[in-house]
Amino acid sequence: MPDPTPESLAWLADRTRAVLVTLRADGSPQSSNVVVAFDGEAFTVSVTEGRAKTHNLRRDPRAVVHVLGDDFWSYASARCRAELSPVSTTPGDETGRQLLALHDAVSDEPHPDPEEFYAAMVDDRRLALRLVLTDVAGAGW
Question: Is the pTM for the entire model greater than 0.90?
Answer without folding.
Answer: yes
